[in-house]
Design brief:
The chain is an alpha+beta fold. The chain has one domain. Helix content is 24%, strand content 36%. The chain is built from one helix and five strands, in the order βββαββ. It is elongated and about 45 Å long.
Amino acid sequence: MPFYYFDVHDHGQDQDDEGKDLPDDNAARVYAVVFAGEFLKHNPELIWDGRQFQVVVTDADKRRLLTINVTATAE
């Protein structure tokens, strides 16, 4: 089963040292969206006032598969 890492970037970097086994790249994409949502659920202040939150997904060889970017600004 393929192995993936989910690194968090929020004006710093929280590197995923554990990773996760998932069936394929599509499952990693779905997991990344759920992971980002759960992380922001507990840390909503990370995206306000133009601050950017990222989840960077890499494979076992640390090749980038995708990046999720989330920002929000108050009007």
